[in-house]
Amino acid sequence: MKKKIPQIIHQIWSGIDEPLPRPFKIIGDTWKRDYPTWKYEFWDNERINNFIQEHYPQHWDVYTRYPFNIQRWDAIRYMILNKMGGIYVDYDYESIKPMDELIKGKHCCFALEKTDPDKIFFNNALMLSVAEHPFMKKIIEQALSKKALDFERSPKKDCVFHTTGPYMLIDLYNTLTEEEKEDIYLIPAQFTSPFNGHEAYLFIQGENEQLLEDCLDEAYAVHYFCSNWAVTDL
Description:
By secondary structure, this protein is of the alpha/beta class. The protein is 43% helix and 15% strand. The protein contains 12 helices and 8 strands. It has helices at 22-34, 45-55, 60-65, 69-84, 100-103, 134-143, 156-163, 166-173, 178-182, 189-192, 197-205, 209-214; strands at residues 8-12, 39-43, 86-89, 93-95, 108-112, 122-129, 185-187, 221-223. The strands form 2 sheets. A 6-stranded mixed β-sheet has the order 2-1-3-6-5-7, with helices on both faces. Helix 1 links the parallel strand 1 and strand 2. Helix 2 (45-55) crosses helix 4, helix 4 (69-84) packs antiparallel against helix 6 (134-143) and helix 6 (134-143) crosses helix 8. The longest helix is centred in the first third of the chain and has 16 residues, at 69-84. The model is unreliable at 230-234 (pLDDT under 50).
């Protein structure tokens, strides 16, 4: 019998630059509200460093040599899910209702973004996995290989996307066999990413409110794309 995704919620805020902003705490609390029986794990910089040194000492060198902090915050979420399993979710992701039925029988899940229907685009803002899932292991091997440091002179967005972010994930997914892909659930956008980045901005600003509210009819969660790592090193 295959393992079930553990009932653990993981969220990361390093705290090295600033405390967790209140709006993010409010959004983060929606996951505690909708999953009251799940264990909640908060990860700050000290806990992250201790975790890597205990469980992944072989990756410490590459982890510390990444040119950008966002690469570290990307990489640690893969390591946490690989070791412990559960759900990882960014602080700009709001829970609308529990996903229990949506993820029932699943072993590794990523939220697809709302984009061109002919393209597959997913990132690491919302991921669920059993511990030691083969794809999560492949991600760690890729993201924390010394080859990831070859991009250190690239523009920041290119560096991050190709080493620890969505381009790396999608490229790796495309190398899998059809059988391997069958064990990875790419959650349709209407369920966990009903807005694209521009629509999320409009919703926050209160524009086109009814039109955008209609996008939430089937949503279990919504991503607001509030991260500003592309222009600052959080």
